[in-house]
Amino acid sequence: MKQEFHRIRRLPPYVFAEVNAMKARARADGEDIIDFGMGNPDLPTPPHIVEKMIEAAQDPKTHRYSNSRGIPGLRKALSAYYERRFNVAVDPEHEAIVTLGSKEGLANLSAAITSPGDVILVPNPSYPIHQFGFIIAGAAVRNIPVTPDETFFQALERAVQHSVPKPTAIVLNYPNNPTAELVDLAFYEQVVDFCLFHGIYILSDLAYSEVYFDDNPPPSILQIQKAWDIAVEFTSMSKTYSMPGWRIGFAAGNRDMIAALARVKSYLDYGAFTPIQVAAAAALNGPQDCVDEMRAVYKERRDVLISGLGAAGWDVPAPPATMFAWAPIPPDMAHLGSLEFSKLLLSEAQVAVAPGVGFGEHGDGFVRIAVVENVHRTRQALRSIKSFLQRYRAGSLDNLDPGQRALG
Which fold has domain 6-44+290-407? Predict the structure, then answer.
């Protein structure tokens, strides 16, 4: 019997799958693909963190079931991080919880606070879980802009006026993935005032809080005291400490939402492997020079990438934060759309990027380029991209049909 499952039907085909399949075939054929597609940190986890995990794993007691809310020491370490970084007090017992990466936390909180048919406000473009966590939970998603300007607040007003039922929650993500947009505390305060007035919960994704390249660290929405009535914020160890495969993240904020997330998680998991949690606490409590080094590496790669793309005839803004450049498709190739452009770049330059349409239809004029290759490999990719663009503009690409040549 073939059954079409309702929740699966609401999920569109994964846009990145086409590029990933092409990439796999090319590698199977022996091609050297330079992969800027996935935000998968290539830097090694700092040695003192790995050593602490190994040390904890030597104790047989740590191999038993853990705590779905996270071990107390790790929740206390998160609280200390918020105090140190944002001057914000977090009660580790009632206002913090450990998640299996921020992605799992967002998805499970979506399930905890959503009823079928609820309206959720989500930026477009956005990281897919921001939208699809709620869609899986049965909600209807209404898109709002990412750019933190007047159009953002006009969209909020329209959403409240024209949504039935009124919106239940809004997702924020700054520094933003994929666009690298930043906001200040004045923006957060205006959003909090609006959402308090209209009774809308806020889910803030702060996964890139430590990946910034100027002298102004990104703020936390929890620095706005009123936010504690309606907001929960998600953070992650993945990018800050190069621990993506360890799957450790956090949620902090409003007690009722933290309690709701804890209740859902209590049915679904026993928490991350205890030695990993011990090591995560050591990362938060220990020396932070490794974080400074991470920023310096990504900044150097960003600068090499952006200057090299400009020299190749592809003007891309330098991102002020995150590990991504949000690159507008060159104007003479914009008609291809982000998916076809990404496939052409892969086949002709052996460089993989993420098509912007995978982050929502408003991302279709862009591709996301992750600075996850070293400087040598980045320069190699830039030479290939420059050659590809020159051949395209000269009309000498074998993979273009006559119609594409004419448009180009």
Answer: Aspartate Aminotransferase, domain 1 (3.90.1150)
Q: How many CB atoms lie within 10 A of CB 89?
A: 10
Tokens encoding 175: 């520094």
Contacts of 39 (CB under 8 A, 6+ apart): 177, 239, 323, 324, 370, 372
What DSSP string describes 272-310? S-HHHHHHHHHHHHS--HHHHHHHHHHHHHHHHHHHHHH
Task: Give the pLDDT confidence of 113-159 residue by residue, as tens digits.
Answer: 999 999 999 999 999 889 989 998 899 999 999 999 999 999 999 99
Instruction: Compute the distance between CA of residue 233 and CA of residue 102 in angstroms, rounded to an integer.
Output: 10
**Which tens digit of pLDDT belongs to each residue from 274-288?**
999 999 999 999 999
Residues 215, 213: Cα–Cα separation, whole Å: 7
Which stretches of the chain score pLDDT less than 50? 402-408
Q: Does domain 47-285 have CATH number 3.40.640.10?
A: yes
pTM for the model stands at: 0.93
Round to whole Å and give the CA distance between 286 and 150: 41
CB within 8 Å of 187: residues ≥ 6 apart: 148
The domain ranges of the chain are 6-44+290-407, 47-285
300-317 burial code (b ≥16 CB/10 A, e <16): ebbebbbebbeebebebe
- What is the phi/psi pair of residue 46, to 5°? -50, 140
